[in-house]
């Protein structure tokens, strides 16, 4: 049963690096004047909400078997706290008038989150494979 949980977590975690990759590509398009600041902010603000909701669902799934997934919850704690901080300060939404000043930091944030999410993805894959092997070795 636990391997189904890890499979769900693994599938949910696929979304996060791709979303941050899209953020990064969109920021680069803005820098090269291929997209307007209004369009960028509208699209990114929607995707940020999708990222937050999917990360919330992922962590709720992890809470189902907290005794076996405590390490995953601990590894997710920094990004959860960061998202909560941004949400409380309402600084998660991009403002078209302030975008030019924030673009470099937002690109850096996207790169860091891509690396972080890919490492979590690897941990989830390892946990899923370990759970399948443990399940198959049961008598």
From TrEMBL:
It is found in: Membrane. GO terms for biological process: vesicle-mediated transport. Pfam families: Cornichon. Keywords: Membrane, Transmembrane, Transmembrane helix. It is a multi-pass membrane protein. The chain crosses the membrane at residues 6-25, 46-64, 114-133. The keyword Kinase does not apply. It comes from the Eukaryota. The keyword Membrane applies. One of its GO terms (cellular component) is membrane. PANTHER family: CORNICHON-RELATED. Belongs to the cornichon family. This is Cornichon family protein. It comes from Acrasis kona.
């Amino acid at each position: 049963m636990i391997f189904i949980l890890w499979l769900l977590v693994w599938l949910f975690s696929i979304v996060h690096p791709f979303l941050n990759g899209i953020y990064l590509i969109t920021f680069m398009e803005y820098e090269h004047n291929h997209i307007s600041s209004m369009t960028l902010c509208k699209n990114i603000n929607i995707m940020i909400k999708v990222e937050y909701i999917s990360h919330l669902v992922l962590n709720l799934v992890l809470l189902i078997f907290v005794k076996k997934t405590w390490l995953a919850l601990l590894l997710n704690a920094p990004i959860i706290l960061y998202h909560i901080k941004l949400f409380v300060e309402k600084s998660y939404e991009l403002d078209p008038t302030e975008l030019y000043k924030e673009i470099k930091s937002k690109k850096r944030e996207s790169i860091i989150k891509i690396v972080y999410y890919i490492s979590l993805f690897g941990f989830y894959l390892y946990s899923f494979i370990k759970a399948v092997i443990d399940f198959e070795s049961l008598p």
